[in-house]
Structure formats: structure tokens, C-alpha cells
Design a protein that fits this description.
The chain is 22% helix and 26% strand. With 432 residues, the chain is an alpha/beta fold. Helix 6 (258-267) packs parallel to helix 7 (286-293).
């Protein structure tokens, strides 16, 4: 359980952090070296060797996760003497150490610390790779450097919050893509961003609170971020040439801001919202639910999820919300069968569409393939966008009726547990 940091006076550490230069990196490297010296000794779920190596430290957190009924993963967080934090994670399935991850977070003030340096090591505590975060003058992570095993040589780097390139509005149907953001440095994305008369992109980052919704999910780790939104958006852009996108980075730190996000998308003219995400807690979606209910003209195309479960019995939100302007989509294979791992529900899942091995452009700009409900959703959003381009007076009721009219029982799985059925080819604009 986290310990209140306020009793510890950290002014010296805060002053050191403000410099942000080589001295701080050298100090973090020394901490990692000391941690690696003991991380592969003794029981991997025992924090005592770490506490012994850092005698003035305090244990803030000890989390043990089981694997097949036995401890298999351990995470220990230590408050160091200078006010920083050391985070050590060890994976040891069936008792055998396989991987060690170490992070150093430097003190910002008496309450918080921010990530600076990380190392990934093998079972013998030999470093495989390092990662270092660089911050801008406002204290935001601006660049991630990938380091070699010496924890000094920079092998590659990537921006984390770059400015959006200049451009003009391309025209077309506005589709809001709510996700982890998009990589707008890619020309194929930047050229399709919805913009105002001055050329400013219309999207927003509700995670960081700025106008740079760059594709980045640091929820799992700030050093090993995930990317999802670019691949999702690339499907909308490919299958709906008439569309321009308004990208949003969802507010993971404060999901109550989802209501603001919906209002923003409405203000910017999006009648179709692509929402290829979801969580198990309904409370996270209460402001979204109220905002969506108050805007019956907006169509929300959402993901059923990929937990291999019936969301009527075990809900996923927002898919399981009873809103007339939501269409919940799950993934089918190429033969019209519910894809392995995709969620279902006779009440809350409206349709399934081919979502396996869908061609995408990933965050790096590389052609790839992706599978799951998240990649069936933009195919349906793109279909709705093409219809809206032909019928600009349509709103959510007309778009949803058109989508449902296309759904058919699948010959390969006629009893699929869905409310309406299967759309075998979302690239076909046919209306019955």
C-alpha cells in the first residue's frame, strides 16, 4: 500500500531534478547498478536484499502475483534516501527467475516522483536494454531514448509529445477517433486531420490536457508505452476516403472528463465517434453516458472487447450501456464466425464484422495486420461515414438503422449470440 511521502523532506532531491542533466542520469545508473547487484540473489519475492543494499530506503509497495498457484511475479517499490523511488519487478514462473525490470523515478517534490531511467535485464541480471525519459521545461515527458546494454549509448529515440505539422483541412465527413491518440507525424495521418480555418487541428489530448493527441498509452509503463490509436485510425482513413478525423487521447487519469470529450467532439462537428476501447467499471463511463444520451444525433461505434465473455452477464463499458445511439461491434473471422477471444452478447452486442488480420498502418508508419474487436469497429465507422457523405442530413438514428439493415445471420454461425447479426463486407455501401 502506498505510503504518504510528505513526512520526508526532499528539497535537495527536487533541486537536483530541476537540472535534468547528466548528473541525474549518472545517479540513476548507479542506483540501477546497485539494484541489479542483488536482484538475482535470494528469493525473487523477498525485498530484504534490496532494502539491505539501500539501507536508508523504505518499502512503499510489495505486490506478489501468482502463476499457476505459486508466486510468479513480484513488484517492490522503495523510497530512497534522496526522495526518489526504485521500482523492481521480477518475473519468475514456477520459481525460476526469467526477467528483471528496474525503474528509477526522481523526486519532484515531497509528494511525487517522475520516471527517469529504466533497465530490462535477463535471468542473470545482465542488462538487455535501457530506456531514458527526457522532459521539457514544463515538466512533460518529451522524448524517449532507447539505450544499449551499457545504459549510456543511445540506439534510437522517439518523440512523446511533438507539435502537429502545419496543414489545411482536407474536407469531408468528420469522424472523431477516441483512443490513445494518433501519430500525426505520419504524412498519411497529418493530411487527413480535421482543421479549422487557421489550419489548427481540431482534436485534443484529454490525458495530458493539451492540443497534441499523440499516440501514446503509458498506463502500463512510461518506458514501454503502447500504441493503438494510429492503427485504428488508419482503417477509417483507408476505408472511408471521404472522411477526415478528429483525434482524441482519452483521459485515463480522470475518466470523468469523457463527458467533456463528447461535448468537444460535438462542438467540432463529429456525428460519428469511433470508440475502440472499454473498461469493466461503469463508474468510469457515467459522464460519457450522460453526454452521449444528451446528443442523440451522434452515433457512437464502440468495441465489445476481447475478453472471450458474454458482456450481458459480465459487462464491459461503454459497450453495455443502454443507449439508443450506440452500436456495439465485435470481431468475426473471414468465414463469419465469432473470432476467438472476442466478446458477445445477445442484448448488448449489435453486430459482428471481419476484424481479424485487418491491414493497418501502425504507430511507426509500417504496414501491418491487427486483429480483434478494436479493428472491426473502425470498419463499421468507415461504412457509416461513407453513407453520411451521401446522405448529409442523416444523424445517428438513420445511420444506426442502415447498419442494422445490413446485418445478416452468418451461414457458418447462424446462432451467433448477437442482437442483429453479421456484416460480411463493410466496404460495400449497399443498402437493402
Amino acid at each position: 500500500m502506498p505510503v504518504n511521502r510528505r513526512p520526508f523532506l526532499l528539497l535537495l532531491a527536487a533541486l537536483a531534478l530541476a537540472g535534468g542533466g547528466p548528473a541525474r542520469a549518472d545517479g540513476a545508473r548507479a542506483v540501477i547498478a546497485d539494484a541489479l547487484a542483488v536482484a538475482c540473489t535470494g528469493a525473487p519475492d523477498d525485498p530484504v536484499p534490496l532494502l539491505g543494499r539501500f539501507p536508508k530506503s523504505r518499502l512503499l509497495e510489495a505486490r506478489i502475483t501468482d502463476f499457476r498457484g505459486r508466486p510468479g511475479r513480484a513488484r517492490h517499490v522503495l523510497l530512497l534516501a534522496d526522495g526518489g523511488e526504485l521500482r523492481v519487478s521480477r518475473i519468475f514462473p514456477l520459481g525460476r527467475l526469467r526477467r528483471v525490470s528496474i525503474e528509477v523515478h526522481a523526486a519532484v517534490d515531497a509528494e511525487t516522483a517522475r520516471p527517469v531511467l529504466a533497465a530490462a535485464a535477463d535471468a542473470t541480471c545482465n542488462v538487455i536494454e535501457g530506456r531514458r525519459l527526457h522532459y521539457d521545461l514544463d515538466g512533460r515527458a518529451a522524448r524517449l531514448a532507447i539505450l544499449g546494454p551499457d545504459m549510456t549509448t543511445e540506439l534510437a529515440g522517439e518523440p512523446l509529445n511533438p507539435p502537429i505539422p502545419a496543414g489545411r483541412d482536407p474536407g469531408g465527413v468528420a469522424v472523431a477517433v477516441v483512443d490513445t491518440g494518433v501519430n500525426y507525424l505520419l504524412e498519411a495521418v497529418a493530411g487527413r486531420l480535421a482543421r479549422d480555418a487557421a489550419g489548427r487541428a481540431l482534436g485534443h489530448d484529454f490525458w495530458d490536457g493539451d492540443d497534441r493527441p499523440f499516440d501514446l498509452d503509458t498506463g502500463r509503463s512510461p518506458f514501454f508505452p503502447l500504441h493503438h490509436g494510429t492503427a485504428v485510425a488508419s482503417i477509417v482513413l483507408r476505408e472511408a476516403p471521404v472522411a477526415r478525423i478528429i483525434p482524441y487521447r482519452f483521459p485515463r487519469p480522470d475518466m470523468a472528463r469523457m463527458g467533456e470529450l463528447v461535448a468537444h467532439a460535438d462542438e467540432k462537428g463529429a456525428r460519428i465517434v469511433n470508440l475502440a476501447m472499454g473498461f469493466n467499471k461503469r463508474d468510469d463511463w457515467r459522464t460519457f453516458e450522460a453526454a452521449a444520451r444528451a446528443r442523440p444525433h451522434m452515433l457512437f461505434v464502440v468495441s465489445a472487447g476481447n475478453d472471450g465473455r458474454d458482456i450481458d452477464a459480465r459487462p464491459v463499458y461503454p459497450a453495455a450501456l443502454d443507449l439508443p445511439n450506440i452500436v456495439t461491434v465485435t470481431s468475426a473471422d473471414a468465414f463469419g464466425r465469432l473470432a476467438a477471444g472476442s466478446n458477445w452478447g445477445r442484448k448488448h452486442v449489435d453486430i459482428m464484422a471481419p476484424g481479424e488480420k485487418v491491414p493497418v498502418i501502425d504507430h511507426r508508419g509500417v504496414a501491418n495486420q491487427a486483429s480483434g474487436s478494436s479493428f472491426a469497429v473502425p470498419r463499421i465507422a468507415a461504412l457509416a461515414a461513407r453513407w453520411l457523405a451521401k446522405h448529409p442530413d442523416w444523424t445517428a438514428p438513420e445511420l444506426k438503422r442502415a447498419l442494422i439493415s445490413r446485418a445478416r445471420p452468418s451461414p457458418r454461425q447462424p446462432d451467433a449470440p448477437l442482437r442483429h447479426g453479421w456484416i460480411p463486407d463493410p466496404t460495400d455501401d449497399f443498402l437493402p
